[in-house]
């Protein structure tokens, strides 16, 4: 049960429509997914989060597919159902195959296991790992 | 304060030494980090986890650097101090620059934010994201 | 799929009925929400948790609305669907508007982001923050 | 850096002293660990939490050692350094050997791994698991 | 919405069938639950995880029921719906009564509470808890 | 062990100095805490996060003290040591007394407990909580 009313394009304010238009143009798509329709209930949040996403997920030293896979890894670890679906779809659109997804989940699962072994045993950090 | 006595190479049993040797050979290194010295207190766990790591982190459809960065993303989300240090060091050894690390953390941070927005608003999954 | 049978008022034991009556009197309401019907399957837990809630959520140096909003912030961070719904409803009954809810989620989202940046970079605590 | 001043027995109020005395009597010990000295900064919380601990950790259908090990499993999953140390010590005092601790951590690690595989793949619950 | 197609026994490859057969033989059951049908989409993961489960969950210094209850404690803390259902069912099959389950959840709940009090107050570990 | 070199004011680039100046002016303070010195290693992140913080933490329908306390609640739930210290200090500077802090932690602890009871019992959301 969604906590607020979703804002559809046709009944959106000009401010919200401008963000929706930018999302569709940037992503070369013709629909708006629920995440943005919900955020649109608070236009300042809609604009702020979209601005952050555009900046952070843009190609940089990491390519967009790697960034999407990192997003999926976090979403799986936090158990965010919506985010698992939306970012897995985005990663597939950018080239992630089923086998790559399976390997991604294998790493995420194993990392969650060894994270608890390291914390449970309270393992001291080796001085050799000193970053600089 | 580590919870068990760490096992050093010289005083290790042959079973443990065999795993330590395999770690050093596989990784082309001459030292054993604390994670393995601690797990060696329970040789069956040492062997099982090392076997899993070797299989999961081997090159596949994802390259080893991408896998290490996914490992860092999970470790940061879970706040595992040891794992952040050890896997960041491993990722750097495989080619992650400081700028790539900064971009990785930017994605991890943003994913943790939008995960909470999606959960807090209880956003329904769009049918368009149906995986197959 | 709920893990135990919920206990309805009419078929409850006198011990459970007494807690249900106190909940309805304290909250000036005429129904019992599922959380209590489920806890009633173990009457000692029902009584213990209700006693804790009454004590912790009572007006103190923090007003009841602030306390409910803190409850929502934790529930969103942990992704507890039931708790997000029940405590958001409680906060609204105590005066939280849709705009206040949107600001609450914006803070919760951002805090989850900067928590990961702080942990990911392993930032040392400034001595100026020493509490006393 | 602890966030409040710890309350030592000699300078404690009679209300706090009464709880400290009860802790030492119940646990057949002659010292108070830091957890209680910190909670004593807010006597109502000290009393409330101690009352909860006494009730929940008392022998019931589960024996006290099993309860302590469950406490350790949660503390490791949440990465609470203080709780890992204090409840592992308590479990050892109740009979947990080093080998039992190693098995406990192996289960906790593996559970954290398969939790992410189940969430990552969004596996539907089998109807056969319906609880009743 | 499950992320991959589940593999049914009749259409499984010989490699997958061998694991399915071993699961049914080991567990003295005649059906395969969804977890394994999903993992079967990546046979190497299916085999690896089943091997881990068999080794870690086998009787050792901890009995199988205690191990299942530890599994439930972790799954509840992480809010893994599938794992809560499957491991609670497994624990019940091994003798966990409704009252034992209620006590388990009471411990898990309280541990999650005191974990946050310990972290929130940043309580220093007592030197008496030094493990060895 | 911090993962990157912190950037001090005197050796900062003009771009970083401008953000540092804005932080000190906005907060009416004369020092820069480590969080910003670390983020300054990636100026685009420094600027982006500061812009977000300024927008989200500004007075709105919620007052700045309430926002800081929500930040503390999230940081305690996630166990972010740096964030617990920095945001508790900020909340105190805005008027949070020791007693308010104690009540905040009591709510955070209890919420973490009942979150697990709700998830562990898989309690269905009451239709009465439907948000609109």
Task: Please describe the structure with a list of short key phrases separated by commas or semicolons.
homohexamer, 132 residues, mainly alpha, 6 helices, 65% helix, elongated
Structural description of this entry:
The structure is a homohexamer of 132-residue chains. Chain A has 132 residues and is mainly alpha-helical. Chain A folds into 2 domains: 12-58, no CATH class; 60-121, AhpD-like, CATH 1.20.1290.10. The first copy, chain A, is 65% helix and 0% strand. Chain A has 6 helices and no strands. The first copy, chain A, has helices spanning 14-27, 34-39, 43-57, 64-78, 81-93, 98-120. In chain A, helix 4 packs across helix 6. Chain A starts with 13 loop residues before the first helix and ends in a 12-residue tail after the last helix. The mean pLDDT of chain A is 97. Chains in contact: A-B, A-C, A-D, A-E, A-F, B-C, B-D, B-E, B-F, C-D, C-E, C-F, D-E, D-F, E-F. At the A-B interface, helix 2, helix 3, helix 4, helix 5 and helix 6 of A face helix 2, helix 3, helix 4, helix 5 and helix 6 of B.
